[in-house]
Design the sequence.
């Protein structure tokens, strides 16, 4: 069995006193790829933001452990230094900070927090350029403001470039496939696959199955009404693609990811919840 | 002088004038009349209502008797010049030849201290000095003229292009003061540097006015710069205010531009206590262009008042103003920009933008960009914003590992950097470094981090 990377137990998150996540349980082992799917407003982005430490999202119940540590007690930058990475659904534009300067500041901040020396400027540049080529991005994007005037595809590629440069241990990708044409999707997926390693885990938050055609998940979960309503293997994603998110009639046996901490919700999720996270 | 405030024990100016520069007598008389009519401005005047001058008026200032020596100054003041070129150092308003370096000049060009010019360039001064500024409307310009003694003259004949920049460094006080920031005699130091820049047709130059100070000394600089650009002349002018927390600066920059001339002006304010900048541009010839950028970084109880006025007198001129500010603690900033498009100035293009970041609850910004349009075929726009750092951008940076302070600093730097963008290297790089240093220092003294 893989070492434990992420363990979410009975997580409840409220935004403006409205429950968005209502008892989420999830176990992610090292080297595993988990896809979290679900309809709009089901709380997928809330989960992603909460894990990264967005100040607007606080857990009102439950716990999250990352490699055995209490993730929720860590600051945003401590989580980053510990190896947690969120690829944003809507990457932020920062005019005036060049992409390369941003990558360098980020990497050196991470290294500093880990007690590692700063990188040699030339080695850093060479390694970033190699990854830019790998992502088939224009090198000129390195010298533009972060995401400034980038196309949708360029922004998503830039998130994956950061993933490759910063080399986190747990990557949460929030709708990284949305707004991509098929070629961009293939490039982005290839970058994500290049990141995969036995000691790194991926959580793919996605609305559609098509990203999973290129990145084979080990587990697929359905987040609906603030809970994980179903879990399964890659075949679950294909079923959802065919049949939509309407829960199958009758209680579906939850897929046990771990012996005991599978996400169970036999009654099926309540319908019509407004998530407010998208 | 009619107003006994500001200066105690004035030396006998009249005697000095009649002895050394009798040819300046009329000019001096005009300044005296202009100042007597206006006196020192009070906050009751619209243009001065935010300026915190009262504290200044309570001080007693003195013009130092002898020139200080740079070698005696604290090491922090003996910073290397960042750019190769002509380097002029002033202290207490007076030129320090031993600390300056003026390189070879093209034929016909003049670059010397104002004191030298007063004795050797009379014809030039008689013709140009005081021609650009209206002393009747600017009391501190009149005051500067009353105490005219030293500064700088730059004269470039037609077609003369200075390859190398001119960097002027003005120190008010150099010597260490008593803990109160005052001199041993209880007085504070004042100086009145005067600059005159005349660029004839097609001439080109870059000039940097940098104001520095001993960090602790109480001081006042009342400066005045007159700029005259003939047809097609081009000037890049920078004013850098890096004074200490007790040094005040009242600066006047008055410009006249002939047809096809181009002024690129950048004002960077990083230090000082009470700062007031009056920037007045007259676009007098068709096709003249003026680009005014400013950046100010204020904290503590600093006060900065930027007053800009651009007059489009004739057709087809262009003006663009971009001023940005970052205010922390209990700092107070004022931006008052006025573009006047006169009746004959058709096809004028006048743009003004003022954007501000408030980093604390106590910081305050008053911004008023104004347009006064008397022509019908014009392109004019103005806008102002006062806001806070983008919290989503902060989160984005922190999620990549930057701590909160570094993230704030990076975003603030990025906000300000836009104003430096048009500067050429290496000047741009140097200004960016000064901005970075100032942000580091501001972060280091923050108590809200």
Sequence:
């Amino acid at each position: 069995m893989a070492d434990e990377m992420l363990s979410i137990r009975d997580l409840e998150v409220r935004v403006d006193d409205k429950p968005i996540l209502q008892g989420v349980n999830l176990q992610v082992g090292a080297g595993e790829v988990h896809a979290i799917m679900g309809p709009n407003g089901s709380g997928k982005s809330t989960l992603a933001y909460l894990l990264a430490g967005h100040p607007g999202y606080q857990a009102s119940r439950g716990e999250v452990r990352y490699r055995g540590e209490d993730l929720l007690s860590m600051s945003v930058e401590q989580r980053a230094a510990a190896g947690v990475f969120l690829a944003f659904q809507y990457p932020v534009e920062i005019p005036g900070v060049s992409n390369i300067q941003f990558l360098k500041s980020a990497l050196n901040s991470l290294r500093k927090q880990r007690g590692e020396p700063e990188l040699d400027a030339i080695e850093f540049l060479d390694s970033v350029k190699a990854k830019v080529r790998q992502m088939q991005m224009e090198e000129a994007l390195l010298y533009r403001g972060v995401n400034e005037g980038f196309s949708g595809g360029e922004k998503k590629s830039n998130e994956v470039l950061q993933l490759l440069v910063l080399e986190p241990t747990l990557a949460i990708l929030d709708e990284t496939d949305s707004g991509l044409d098929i070629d961009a999707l293939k490039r982005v997926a290839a970058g994500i696959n290049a990141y995969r390693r036995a000691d790194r885990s991926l959580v793919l938050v996605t609305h559609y199955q098509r990203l999973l055609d290129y990145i084979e998940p080990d587990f697929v979960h359905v987040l609906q009404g603030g809970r994980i309503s179903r879990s399964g293997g890659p075949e679950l994603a294909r079923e959802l693609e065919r049949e939509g998110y309407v829960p199958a009639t009758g209680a579906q046996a939850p897929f046990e990811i771990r012996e005991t901490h599978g996400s169970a919700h036999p009654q099926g999720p309540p319908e019509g919840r407004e998530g407010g996270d998208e | 002088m009619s107003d006994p405030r500001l200066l105690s024990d004035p030396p006998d100016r009249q005697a000095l004038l009649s002895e050394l520069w009798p040819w300046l007598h009329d000019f001096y008389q005009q300044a005296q009349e202009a100042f007597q009519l206006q006196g020192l401005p009070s906050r009751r005047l619209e243009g001065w209502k935010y300026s915190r001058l009262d504290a200044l008026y309570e001080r007693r200032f003195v013009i130092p008797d002898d020139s200080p020596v740079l070698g005696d100054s604290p090491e922090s003041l003996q910073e290397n010049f960042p750019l190769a070129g002509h380097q002029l150092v002033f202290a207490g308003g007076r030129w320090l030849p031993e600390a300056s370096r003026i390189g070879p000049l093209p034929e016909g060009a003049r670059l010397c201290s104002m004191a030298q010019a007063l004795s050797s360039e009379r014809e030039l001064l008689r013709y140009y000095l005081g021609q650009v500024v209206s002393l009747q409307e600017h009391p501190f310009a009149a005051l500067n003229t009353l105490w005219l003694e030293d500064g700088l003259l730059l004269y470039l004949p037609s077609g003369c292009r200075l390859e190398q920049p001119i960097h002027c460094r003005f120190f008010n006080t150099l010597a260490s003061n008593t803990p109160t920031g005052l001199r041993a005699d209880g007085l504070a130091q004042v100086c009145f540097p005067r600059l005159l820049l005349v660029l004839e047709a097609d001439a080109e130059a870059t000039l940097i006015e940098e104001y520095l100070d001993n960090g602790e000394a109480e001081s006042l600089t009342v400066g005045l710069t007159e700029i005259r650009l003939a047809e097609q002349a081009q000037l890049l002018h920078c004013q850098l205010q890096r004074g200490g927390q007790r040094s005040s600066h009242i600066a006047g920059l008055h410009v006249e531009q002939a047809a096809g001339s181009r002024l690129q002006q950048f004002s960077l304010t990083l230090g000082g206590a009470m700062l007031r900048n009056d920037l007045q541009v007259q676009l007098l010839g068709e096709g003249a262009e003026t680009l005014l950028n400013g950046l100010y970084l204020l904290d503590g109880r600093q006060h900065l008042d930027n007053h800009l006025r651009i007059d489009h007198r004739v057709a087809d001129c262009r003006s663009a103003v971009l001023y940005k500010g970052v205010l922390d603690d209990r700092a107070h900033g004022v931006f008052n920009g006025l573009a006047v498009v006169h009746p004959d100035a058709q096809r004028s293009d006048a743009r003004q933008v003022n954007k501000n970041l408030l980093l604390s609850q106590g910081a305050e910004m008053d911004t008023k960009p104004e347009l006064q349009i008397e022509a019908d075929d014009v392109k004019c726009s103005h806008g102002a914003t006062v806001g806070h750092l983008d919290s989503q951008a902060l989160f984005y940076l922190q999620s990549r590992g930057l701590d909160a302070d570094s993230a704030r600093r990076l975003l603030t730097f990025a906000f300000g950097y836009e104003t430096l963008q048009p500067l050429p290297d290496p000047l741009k790089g140097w200004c960016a470094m000064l901005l970075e240093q100032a942000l580091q220092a501001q972060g280091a003294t923050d108590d809200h981090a």
Notes: The radius of gyration of chain B is 21 Å. Chain B touches chain A at residues 390-393, 395-404, 406, 410-411, 413-418 (CB under 8 Å). Chain B has nine helices and 22 strands.
